[in-house]
Amino acid sequence: MDTKKVLLARPSIFIVKHMQRLITDAACEPAPISNISEIHVYSKREVGAVVISTGVTSVIKQSFQEVLEEVLKDFPNVPIYLATLISSENLKKSVANTLQLLGVNRELYSIEEAVQKGFDQNPIVIIRKDDLTDSNK
């Protein structure tokens, strides 16, 4: 069986530094991209999840909303994780507006909500740096 790739669709230092171990511990292979057009290179079969950084700086020049739109076009049913430093509630408002404009109906959960409610509804999950670095979580 081929190793699933976790597409790092808007890589930033936050993703690379703090998520690489989590991705490899899940027996997946990180697949960072350096240009938004590279999203279209991967097939639905090989991508197990997508991580998008909401940070201001990234090698991808487009905003995280633009990258999210492209990801949703190519991978509408793949788990999506938004890596952020801002509060989950603030990001939820912004992403909810983007999803509404795109006509996409997916739940938005913090990592705590995803653990409680489960992943059955294929939510978009918000992961904060503290979720990865706090040993109590």
What tags apply to this protein structure?
137 residues; 22% strand; 5 helices; 6-stranded parallel β-sheet; 37% helix; alpha/beta; globular; single chain; 6 strands
- Compute the gyration radius: what is it? 14 Å
**Main sheet: strand order:** 2-1-3-4-6-5
Distance between the termini: 31 Å
The helicity comes to: 25-40%
**Tally of separate helices:** 5
Shape: globular
**Count of strand segments:** 6
Helix and strand content put the structural class at alpha/beta
Poorly predicted segments: none
SSE ordering: EHEEHEHEHEH
Q: Which strand-content bin applies to the residues?
A: 15-25%
Quaternary state reads single chain
Mean pLDDT: 86
List the helices and strands and how they pair.
Blueprint: E1 5-10, H1 13-25, E2 29-32, E3 47-53, H2 64-74, E4 80-84, H3 88-102, E5 108-110, H4 111-117, E6 124-128, H5 129-133
Parallel strand pairs: 1-2, 1-3, 3-4, 4-6, 5-6
Report on this structure.
The protein has 137 residues and is of the alpha/beta class. It contains 5 helices and 6 strands, in the order βαββαβαβαβα. It has helices at residues 13-25, 64-74, 88-102, 111-117, 129-133; strands spanning 5-10, 29-32, 47-53, 80-84, 108-110, 124-128. Strands 2-1-3-4-6-5 form a 6-stranded parallel sheet, sandwiched between helices. α2 (64-74) links the parallel β3 and β4 (80-84). The mean pLDDT is 86.
